[in-house]
Design a protein that fits this description.
By secondary structure, the protein is of the alpha+beta class. It is built from 9 helices and 12 strands.
């Protein structure tokens, strides 16, 4: 069962009288009257991370992926709660010390504070993080407009290649290994433009499951489709070199998620302000496509102007 089917059939009716739940069709809870936004994420070993050999890096990835839910909504995270399930081996003193030091570093970097949580014994390692921030307005899903431009912050694909390296599915030199694995564990969030997004974005989502899948989610209840230009989708110089050397397909590398960049749409008349904010903040923002009528199929066009398909459209939450 797909997660949307689960939500629609069993959970949606429980939130009908709660406007702040946003019909369970967004990644956050937003109480406009109190100006509070909250997100919840759970991460399980074997599903969301391969192993626990580097607890200091795993906890960084988990925290960043969690607060990105707020950042892409135009809300700066302020507090977080963390709950963990583990045993004596995973929650050993050395591991807990590494986790504590990493969390301290992340708190300083993103100006957030730990407020509580819970721990429980389990042989299946997992973490749940609740992130919270204050705002009187957020950027919701399903607010795209026909002819909106589609934008993405940062680069895509580096994290997925890092995961492939860790899984030993692809082999690169030591320098590239360090680069891509670091991108996997420590995604660069567009934190500096969080408060600026509200000025130009009509709708937004963070790239967690994959560009195509997350874009589809962003407009899933609207009679709209999208047209993406593969050539314009931004990738790093390092990834570009690997693609040429290994003869890989770009579309398959940028469609697998774990990037935690912000994907949003904006009216074409916002081009100048987006460019100006990108330059002043140092955050790369790239126009990659257009929102089109739902009467047409969503497509991805290559540099030759031909329609292409991604082998993988993203991670699917299946039950």
């Amino acid at each position: 069962m797909h997660e949307f089917e689960l939500i629609k059939n069993y959970l949606s009716k429980l939130s009908k009288k709660n406007k702040s739940a946003l019909k369970l069709n967004d990644d956050v809870f937003f109480d406009k009257m109190k100006g509070v936004a909250i997100s919840v994420d759970t991460y399980i070993i074997g599903t969301h991370f391969i192993d626990f050999k580097s607890p200091d890096l795993i906890i960084k990835k988990i925290l960043r992926s969690s607060i990105s839910d707020l950042i892409c909504k135009g809300v700066k995270p302020k507090f977080y709660f963390i709950s963990g399930s583990g045993n004596q081996r995973t929650f050993s003193r050395p591991n807990l010390s590494k986790i504590s030091k990493s969390l301290s570093t992340e708190q300083t970097k993103f100006k957030i504070f730990l407020c509580g949580g819970d721990t429980t014994y389990s042989n299946k390692l997992s973490f749940t993080i609740i992130s919270m921030g204050y705002s009187d307005k957020i950027i919701q899903r399903n607010k795209a407009k026909l002819d909106d431009d589609i934008y993405i912050t940062g680069n895509l694909g580096d994290s997925f290649l890092g995961l492939q390296i860790l899984r030993k599915k692809i082999k690169v030199n030591k320098k590239d290994t360090k680069f891509f694995v670091n991108k996997y564990y420590q995604p660069e969030l567009p934190f500096e433009i969080t408060n600026q997004l509200i000025k130009f974005a009509n709708t937004s989502i963070d790239i967690s499951d994959g560009l195509i899948d997350d874009l589809t989610k962003m407009i899933n209840r609207q009679n709209l489709s999208f047209c993406l230009n593969e050539k314009e989708i931004p990738i790093s110089t390092n990834l570009s070199k690997i693609i040429k050397k290994k003869k890989l397909k770009k579309i398959n590398l940028i469609s697998n998620g774990d990037d935690y960049q912000t994907l949003f749409t904006a009216n074409p008349n916002k081009t100048r302000i987006i460019r100006r904010i990108s330059e002043s903040s140092g955050i790369k923002i790239t126009k990659i496509g257009k929102i089109i009528s739902g009467n047409k199929r969503s497509i991805v066009i290559d540099k030759k102007g031909e329609q292409i398909r991604a082998k993988y459209k993203g991670y699917i939450h299946q039950f």
